[in-house]
Every structure is written in C-alpha cells, then in structure tokens.
C-alpha cells in the first residue's frame, strides 16, 4: 500500500509540473551583432514567463536585468532559458552586460 501512495504522490507532482510549464508565457529573444532582437518583449501580468535567449554571435554575452534580478551568461552560439515568476504590470529593462552600449531591451508586462 505504501508503494501505491508513493506512486500516486509522484504522479501528482508530475501532473503539477506539467500544468505549471504549460501555463508559462514562452518568449524568444536573440542576440545578433551585440543587439537584442526583438528589443521589446510583451507578456501578461500574473503569469510565469520563460525567456529563451539565443546568442547568434560567436562571442559570449551576459543577459542581465537588475529589475528582473537576472544575470546569466549566454555562450557564443549558445542558448539559455530564464524562468521568471509572475510579474506585476510594468516595464523591466534588460541589457547585455558585455555590450551595454548596443545590447538593450525591455520586457513590457501588461
């Protein structure tokens, strides 16, 4: 009987994970020539957000946002995914720390 309860608990946990992942707002962002494309992303307030950042340049870049409390290096020709908890409406700036003069963007949460 204990084994059955354990299996039920695992199944419930997996179902909860799947529900969470499917309710995320998935956004994509690329870095090319040390610029973000698109420079502005939009998401709905109150929902978890996953931003996949693809670095199309050969050199590394750091996706950084003090407002979002994120700082992650993206290897040259690499990819990362940043998961954010639900946010309040607002504008959240981000930048590429290694090329802050050109790599700028914002996440608009409505």
Automatic annotation (TrEMBL):
SUPFAM superfamilies: Cupredoxins
Database matches in InterPro entries: Cupredoxin, EfeO_Cupredoxin
Domain EfeO-type cupredoxin-like per the UniProt entry, residue ranges: 7-109
Record key words, sorted: Signal
Keyword S-adenosyl-L-methionine on entry: no
Signal sequence coordinates: 1-21
Name recorded for this polypeptide: Cupredoxin domain-containing protein
């Amino acid at each position: 009987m204990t084994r059955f309860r354990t299996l039920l608990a695992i199944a419930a946990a997996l179902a909860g994970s799947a529900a969470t992942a499917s309710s995320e707002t998935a956004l994509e962002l690329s870095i090319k020539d040390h610029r973000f494309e698109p420079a502005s992303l939009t998401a709905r307030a109150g929902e978890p957000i996953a931003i996949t950042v693809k670095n199309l340049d050969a050199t590394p870049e750091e996706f950084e946002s003090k407002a979002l409390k994120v700082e992650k290096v993206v290897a040259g020709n690499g990819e990362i995914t940043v998961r954010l908890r639900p946010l309040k409406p607002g504008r959240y700036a981000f930048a590429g720390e290694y090329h802050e003069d050109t790599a700028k963007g914002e996440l608009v949460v409505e």
